[in-house]
Amino acid sequence: MKIITREIPPRAAWALEQAGVHPLLARLYAARGVCARDELDDGLARLLPPDGLKGMAQAAQLLADALAQNRRLLIVADYDCDGATACAVGVRGLRMLGARHVDYLVPDRVIDGYGLTPGIARRVRERGADLLITVDNGIASVDGVAEAKALGLGVLVTDHHLPGAELPQADAIVNPNQPGCTFGSKALAGVGVMFYVLLALRSELRARGVFQSPGATPAAAGAGKPAQPRLDALLALVALGTVADVVRLDANNRRLVAQGLRRVRAGAMPAGMAALFHAAGRKVAAASTLDLGFALGPRINAAGRLADMTLGIECLLTDDPGRAAELAGLLDGINRERRAIEGSMREQALRMAEGLVHESAQPPAAISVFDPGFHEGVVGIVAARIKDRLHRPTFVFAPSGAPGREHEFKGSGRSIVGFHLRDALDLVAKRHPGVLLKFGGHAMAAGCTLAGPTFELFGQALAQVAQEWLDIGTLTRRIETDGPLAPEYCRADLVDTLQREVWGQGFAPPTFSEEVEVLSQRLVGEKHLSLKLRHQGRPVDGIWFGRTEPLPARVLLAFRLDVNEWKGERRVQFLVEGAQF
Question: How far is it, in rounded angstroms, from Cα 111 to Cα 405?
Fold first, then answer.
């Protein structure tokens, strides 16, 4: 492991500080590419306009026509948190804008697999829908869209995933990553795309004279016309899905998340989100991106992994606090079950992965593991754990649970910086036709299906690609930090300030590094290292989760800041991320 310090452009840090930004925040922002204070403006007016998305005009017209003709709309969602929030945003938003018939359907992870399949298109038609809308999927569903069109359905694809060689022949496609789209944020999550579609639809309806004119008298406004709805009520859900999907928090996504968190802290969120905060034991008034990503997101995701994502979507759709509490409790229980399954799988998968380590004590350039007892709903989480431990692109496979497909292996992969996982799968598919039955995903996460007998060949082929693409520098785990922490900033109130900011993928949370003295250390819970440290001459507590090996008396640590509350006293503690010996 190598601990490195981010470069801090002095001019940018100085400009931010002169503009009134706290000196520590100025340093952190400058190191993340922020050059001027106006870039930190998270007002709604600073959001990129919807008309910058290719296909948006057609999508808005398609939906507006469907509403005018009282058509039946059905959303086909995905079974992760981004898909669930995108579905909830779509259902809620379309109803707010006047749709009378809006329903949804979630594919079964095991039986249906990912995306809009021909079978799902037929189920949509059987439910009497006129217009099919995909959220967080569909850009690769060429056959599914073709079947839907053959059945007489209108089709709107909203997605953010990378397209394949062929686009589906939908009536409209909105995806910032489709060819020819020049939208300024390629990092929109699926829920962000759906939110933007609703903004464009509202604009189209306003142009058609559907809403009352603001500020006009009732007669002039149009008798019987509804007031224009405020779609910002959906931003709490947009923030949750954006953070949970670990998309890059560029300036536009940070604004969406900041606006959503502001409403969450004020209590302006769906009853289901409030119930999930309670179930997770998190404080609404101090809600942060950590809460969304590590408390609410996993509870929603657990439904799609082990049960039915309908539970998660219903939790986000209900306005009944009692029903929300019931559903949040169910999701919390499913998440506990998920953690138990994951823990067992993780230990076994790590033993298998460490068994691949060469005599040189170095693991192969990419890791692939399979066990017939693995659960396909949890393979992605386990792949992430192995990737974090060994710093290698990792795929974990489980037998398919779909009837008649027991011979297939379903895999989920996680990658390291510098290795584009979907592109690697594409190269494996080209070099070894027939090995991959299907695949898709992003640079850092992807999924695929194999015919069981090809597993060994797949593992060798992926490792070969990684060997060609990665060098020793990339294969060495690196922790980027913000350097030393001045002792005057080691305060609970300043930690609170930092935690209220929007941090995440591509805009990393503050991590500091410096040499400290280890005064004492002991194991807690048999798998965590509790530390008493001396930092800049002052004592401070520390905790290193998942670490059992003792530390030397002096050591260079990378750490984040947290506040530990005990008997009414709030004290700063270091959350150790790594050490360089």
Answer: 9
Give the DSSP letter string of 466-506: HHHH--HHHHS-EEEE-----GGG--HHHHHHHHHS--BTT
User: pTM here?
Assistant: 0.92
Q: Are 166 and 53 a contacting pair, CB within 8 Å?
A: no
d(CA 282, CA 298): 14
Beta-bridge mates of residue 479: 3
Q: Do residues 378 and 342 make contact, with C-beta atoms less than 8 angstroms apart?
A: yes
**Amino acid sitting at position 525:** G
**Which tens digits make up the pLDDT trace of 197-236?**
999 999 999 999 999 987 655 555 556 799 999 999 999 9
Residues 115-144: tens digit of each pLDDT: 899 999 999 999 999 999 999 999 999 999
Spatial distance between the Cα atoms of 418 and 477, rounded to a whole number of angstroms: 12
Q: Which residues pair with 350 in a beta bridge?
A: none
Alpha helices in 127-266 (DSSP H): 142-150, 190-207, 218-221, 235-244, 251-265
Nearest to 98 by CA among 237, 202, 232: 202
Q: Tokens in use for 311?
A: 């539970």
Please state the φ and ψ torsions of residue 279, each to the nearest 5 degrees.
-65, -35
pLDDT digit string (tens) for 530-544?
999 999 999 999 999
